[in-house]
Amino acid sequence: MSDDQTAPRYHAYLLRLWQERPASFERPAVWRFSLEDTRTRQRRGFGSLEALMSFLRAQVEGTDGPDGPIQSEREVRRET
Asked: Are residues 75 and 45 in contact, defined by beta-carbon separation less than 8 angstroms?
């Protein structure tokens, strides 16, 4: 058996979520999310709850999940 099959999988993240209010009342407020790995301190940003859930689902299922650079909260805001 390889180490991948016997080693327990464990992830710990600090979840941040915040609501951004647009400059105009014509656009709805938007929720943003970030996860910070407590071990490496790397932060990954998400522009939607669906993207966050997709990443977490991939972690639980043992797949690599969505690739992409670690993003700051400012970078997440610029995505949409």
From this structure: yes
CB atoms within 10 A of CB 16: 14
The model carries a pTM of 0.65
| Per-domain boundaries in the chain | 3-79
Find out whether 48 and 34 touch, Cβ atoms under 8 Å: no
Phi, psi angle pair for 26, to nearest 5°: -75, -20
pLDDT at residue 23, as a whole number: 74
Question: How many residues are listed for the chain in this entry?
Answer: 80
Rounded-to-integer distance, Cα 64 and Cα 60, Å: 10
Q: How far apart, in whole angstroms, are the C-alpha atoms of residue 58 and residue 50?
A: 12
According to DSSP, residue 21 is labeled P
- The C-alpha torsion from 31 through 15 and 47 to 26, rounded to 10°, is 10
